[in-house]
Write a structure and sequence with these properties.
By secondary structure, this protein is an alpha/beta fold. It is 44% helix and 21% strand. The protein has four domains: 1-67 and 177-260, Rossmann fold; 77-176, no CATH class; 320-542, Rossmann fold, CATH 3.40.50; 563-634, Helix Hairpins (Orthogonal Bundle), CATH 1.10.287. It has a six-stranded mixed sheet, with helices on both faces. Strands 14-17-18-12-19-20 form a six-stranded mixed sheet.
Length: 635
């Protein structure tokens, strides 16, 4: 017997039908992932199932007495509330008594003068809770808070985004619901929290319906996928990988069937236009059939187009992007970065991994020269043009129109040297022309992310900094963004908790170890995990040694640098700097139209630039080889 069902559901916003006679059934023990395009109505559907909003037509049925909890994308909390008060607030009639009980318990532990009065008040509250049959609610609240590693006395206004998400989950689970509705539960959680949540939900025995675009989370947790596509709900048994195969076959079959239908309709339209023949034969049945075909074609909802992403890397940066040597940074008494060294070259795609609050943003700002280090040296390359993607969307003015966000004061944007009208450019990101003058505040979370990407890609940049770009994006857009970044020939810094996205995009990882120390690893998330497991399995092999991107090859004893090689190594950084400076000067001269005139220096400068590029690569490779030998010998 189902716990929850939806029948004949219809819901529209304006002329867009989000639900078109949709059907859904949720049985006990199922863990169902709800997926679909941004703006397709997933959150609206979840809200209707939770009883927080109504449908235009159709019915939501819940089993009588069903205990249901709903966690929205951005749960509303009072900033002055404590964590305990917020979690207890989900316990129904007992919530106010629980809050009073917790406050008095806290006062009792801090005072030595009012024990008798406070104990009497505590006893009264205990009796009232027992009368409601809700005494166990106090222990449930405390267990939920401990489970999510939260401070019960902390004020909500002081919590980070990840802590607020954990608080919302704790509040929902404290009531021990039979059905749990989750809207993007992994947003703002760090990797450790996501993996813990996966394990918990997979083994908790709670019936789940959740919205997510985290492909690995779906593969680990869900037993069935339901896709909301053009107003209809389609069920796919199994995990995400099985869905992908079946969905591809369905779209292919749909395209063939639509083509066959359109061909037949075209033939009938040719016949009816003959007019005289149609009237002479008086084939009224055929005329009626044609009218039915026209109605069927008008009712058919074509698949929404794909996002068209294009990224202009602009002028190439120098070969060296940044070099950090022994860099440290301390805030108050906390060392966020401790003795970190790295060398980042043009074209590197670097993923940053670490728990919330570890200092990923601080490390990024140090690498890009936006923050001064307390110790160590930071050397930046030349011709760096950096663009940022902000996970909190703080750079979006909610009152601005979409067109103003993309191109303030102009109707055009220039992409790869070609001018394009801003409305056409927004259409590439699936924003209808009618929405170009809509305010940002009218957009969903996923649509705001698409708008940020549209603005980011409207400007050339040879260094991209993407902070959680995957939050709220639908799966199709995620996969297109992956492909775009794989083909990007600039330098990429990616902060993400989407493990599949990291594996598909980055070539190396900088990960937080402990106590302000960061390690470098070749590859993405899975490679980092494998190296961590190997290091844990053989702790003696790594004792007191920094983690490197790859193990250094064994070298014969006595393979020390000669005096000549040592002098060469000392002179190479200056040689590289000189070459990069010359490269920058020549590139600037190439912008002068006079050098390209007949008899000008254009050809000679171009040849020299090519030669410098080769010399730089050779110098960098030689520096790395000598530095590696010097470091190995010193150990």
């Amino acid at each position: 017997m189902p716990l929850l069902s939806l029948s004949g559901a219809c819901l529209a916003f304006g002329h867009v039908a989000l639900l078109d006679h949709a059907e859904l059934q949720l049985d006990a023990g199922e863990r169902v992932a709800l997926i679909g395009r941004n703006g397709s109505g997933k959150s609206s559907l979840l809200s209707a199932l939770a009883g927080l909003s109504t449908l235009d037509d159709g019915q939501v049925w819940r089993q009588p007495g069903l205990k249901l909890a709903h966690v929205p994308q951005e749960p509303p909390f009072e900033p002055e509330q404590t964590v305990f008060e917020a979690v207890a607030g989900g316990m129904g009639a007992a919530s106010e008594l629980l809050a009073q009980w917790q406050q008095i318990s806290h006062r009792l532990s801090e005072t030595t003068t009012e024990h008798e009065t406070l104990l009497a008040e505590l006893n009264r509250l205990q009796h009232e809770l027992e009368a409601l049959g809700a005494w166990s609610a106090a222990s449930q609240t405390e267990r939920a808070i401990q489970r999510f590693d939260l401070d019960p006395e902390a004020r909500i206004g002081t919590l980070s985004g990840g802590q607020k998400k954990r608080l919302a989950l704790a509040r929902a689970l404290a009531a021990e619901p039979e059905v749990l509705l989750l809207d993007e539960p992994t947003n703002h959680l760090d990797l450790a929290s996501i993996e813990w949540l996966e394990e918990f939900l997979a083994g908790a025995g709670i019936t789940l319906l959740f919205i997510t675009h985290d492909r690995r989370f779906m593969d680990r947790v869900c037993t069935r996928i339901v896709e909301l596509d053009r107003g209809r709900l389609t069920s796919f048994p199994g995990a995400f990988s099985a869905y992908q195969e079946r969905k591809a076959r369905m779209l292919q079959d749909e395209a063939v069937e639509n083509a066959r239908f359109d061909k037949f309709l075209a033939q009938e339209e040719v016949w009816i236009r003959k007019g005289v023949e149609a009237r002479r034969t008086r084939n009224e049945g055929r005329v009626l059939r044609l009218e039915a075909l026209r109605r069927a074609r008008a009712a058919r909802r074509d698949q929404q187009g794909q996002v068209r992403l294009s990224l202009d890397a602009g002028e190439k940066s120098g070969q060296l992007v940044a070099e950090l040597t022994g860099v440290s940074k301390v805030f108050a008494d906390k060392t966020v970065v401790r003795d970190f060294s790295t060398r980042i070259l043009r074209g590197d795609r670097i993923g940053l991994i670490g728990p919330n609050g570890a200092g990923k943003t601080t490390l990024l700002r140090l690498i890009l020269g936006e923050l001064k280090s307390d110790r160590g040296q930071v050397r930046l390359g030349t011709r760096l043009a950096t663009a940022y993607f902000d996970q909190f969307r703080t750079t979006l003015d909610p009152e601005s129109t979409l067109a103003d966000v993309i191109s303030p004061g102009s109707d055009y944007v220039e992409i790869r040297g070609v001018k394009k009208h801003v409305i056409g450019y927004l259409e590439d990101f699936l924003f209808a022309p009618a929405r170009a003058r809509s305010p940002v505040k009218s957009l969903s979370g996923g649509e705001r992310n698409r708008l940020l990407l549209a603005r980011l890609f409207a400007r050339p940049a040879n260094v991209l900094v993407l902070d959680e770009p995957t939050n709220d994006l639908d799966i199709e857009t995620l996969e297109l963004l992956e492909q775009l970044l794989q083909d990007y020939d600039g330098t990429l810094f990616l902060v993400s908790h989407d493990r599949t996205f990291l594996d598909n995009v980055v070539t190396q990882t900088i990960a937080f170890d402990a106590d302000g120390r960061w390690g470098e690893y070749v590859g993405g998330y899975e490679d980092w995990q494998r190296m961590r497991r190997a290091a844990t399995a053989a702790p003696s092999a790594k004792a007191d040694k920094p983690r490197m991107a790859a193990p250094a090859p064994a070298r014969p004893r006595g393979d020390k640098l000669s005096w000549k090689e040592q002098k060469e190594l000392e002179g190479l950084p200056d040689r590289i700097t000189t070459l990069e400076a010359e490269q920058g000067n020549l590139a600037a001269r190439m912008e002068d139209p006079a050098v390209h005139a007949p008899g000008g220096e254009g050809s000679a400068i171009a040849e020299r630039l090519e030669a410098i590029e080769l010399e730089l690569i050779a110098a960098l490779e030689r520096w790395e080889a000598l530095e590696s030998r010097a470091t190995t010998t010193a150990r």
